[in-house]
From TrEMBL:
It comes from Enterococcus haemoperoxidus ATCC BAA-382. One of its GO terms (biological process) is peptidoglycan metabolic process. Keywords: Membrane, Transmembrane, Transmembrane helix. The keyword Membrane applies. This is DUF218 domain-containing protein. The chain crosses the membrane at residues 6-23, 35-51, 57-75, 82-103, 109-138, 150-172, 184-209, 380-401. GO terms for cellular component: plasma membrane.
Length: 404
């Protein structure tokens, strides 16, 4: 019976794989990748539960409970950094569970998946850090060629140089430094390990947040501003934000005949001739958006003010606070913008415009640094505890050696 069920679930899965893209083509939003991933997850979970039922065990309830905790937290409030941690806990527990199930069943599908995962993890352990270094140097060169040499564009290069120096020093430290000094040096790798976990959780929730599927029932779309070229022209990065809003505007209009208003948000910088929002409005007008469907917010200087001032304009235009809003920005900035919306008490999620791949590593590093600074007190406490612990170990080692 197990073989028959495996064949049946496999056939059902393959049918869904072919049907989903065709089904999405008939929708206003034709994106199908999220639904393919969801379909695979559903079929795999059903298959795993079937294997458990055959064994007359119910250990699948353990990872399922972690998944439910994550889903409850995420759908209650998507804009939480803790959601990344909860999802990764689910992954760890789920992988452990699947390993246990593999040992108990020796299922061919699980063996194949375990083999692929093992090869990936082995490669990650053997060459992961060195491959990361090569990628960071390559990416830094590409970014500098295409975007210039500003400090914001040098983050991947600075990270690559820092990791290189760390690896070299770490290799020679045991040979040069006494044991107690090596323990003091251990403050750095432990702090780096901590921040790598924080970054991984941030990256996880940032990616998950990209899968927002907003309903076509919005009253407003906020477009978050950024700098202008020569103080008056919309740059490509900002243009993509506006075009993402226009895409949703047209999709909702086609689906409901009731398009939302587009609210351009951005003030006038010191080096700009006009407010960003006015340049953004002109851009949208050239794309055929009616002027009566465009609002402008001209006072904000940063993303938090974008959200606060836009909220005031929407409340005034709508005549109340029960409006439904959405915001658009570039995909790398999406989650942090959501945090600012939460800080402004604005109930709105976002959709992200695509960004060129070469720009993403540098952009996500910039976003991560900004996120760390938003919670710097928490991170200083953790790093302080790490430093105190290693100093105590170093002192114990030092006095132990001198007392011999």
């Amino acid at each position: 019976m197990g073989n028959y069920f495996s064949i049946i679930i496999g056939i059902i899965y393959l049918i869904g794989v072919f049907i989903i893209p065709k089904w999405r083509q008939k929708k206003v939003n034709q994106d199908w990748k999220f639904f393919e991933l969801l379909w695979f997850s559903i079929c795999f979970i059903i298959y795993v539960i079937f294997l458990e039922v055959q064994l007359h065990t119910y250990y699948f309830l353990i990872p399922s409970s972690f998944l439910l905790i994550f889903l409850f937290s995420y759908f209650k409030e998507k804009r939480r950094l803790a959601n990344g941690l909860l999802f990764n806990l689910f992954l760890i527990v789920g992988m452990t569970y699947l390993g246990s199930l593999l040992v108990r069943t020796m299922n061919p599908l699980l063996i194949v998946l375990a083999g692929i995962t093992s090869v990936f993890l082995l490669l990650l352990l053997l060459i992961g850090l060195y491959a990361l270094l090569v990628f960071l140097y390559w990416n830094a060169i590409v970014v500098m060629r295409k975007e210039g040499h500003s400090l914001a564009n040098l983050l991947t290069l600075l990270l690559a140089i820092g990791l290189t120096v760390f690896l070299i020093f770490n290799y020679y430290s045991d040979k040069v430094l006494p044991q107690w000094a090596s323990l003091l040096f251990g403050i750095l790798p432990l702090s780096m390990f901590y921040f790598s976990i924080v970054f991984y959780n941030f990256l996880t929730i940032s990616i998950i947040y990209q899968f927002n599927q907003p309903k076509y029932n919005k009253d407003f779309i906020i477009v978050l501003g950024s700098g202008l070229i020569d103080g008056k022209t919309v740059p490509p990065l900002l243009g993509k934000r506006i075009e993402k809003a226009i895409q949703f505007y047209k999709a909702q209009s086609n689906a409901t005949l009731n398009p939302p208003k587009i609210l351009m948000s951005g003030g006038k910088g010191d080096d700009e001739h006009i407010a960003e929002s006015l340049a953004m409005k002109n851009y949208a007008l050239e794309k055929g958006i009616p002027e009566e469907d465009i609002l402008v917010e001209t006072n904000s200087k940063n993303t938090l003010e974008n959200m606060k001032f836009s909220k005031e304009i929407m409340e005034q235009d709508f005549g109340g606070t029960d409006f439904r809003a959405l915001f658009t920005t570039n995909n790398f900035h999406l989650f942090r913008a959501g945090l600012f919306a939460k800080m402004a008490n604005l109930k709105a999620d976002g959709i992200g415009a695509r960004t060129a791949f070469y720009f993403l590593p540098n952009a996500f590093l910039r976003e991560f640094i900004a996120i760390v600074m938003m919670h710097k007190r928490r991170h200083l406490i953790v790093c302080g505890l790490i430093a105190v612990m290693m100093i105590l170990f170093a002192l114990a080692e030092f006095f132990l050696v001198t007392s011999r």
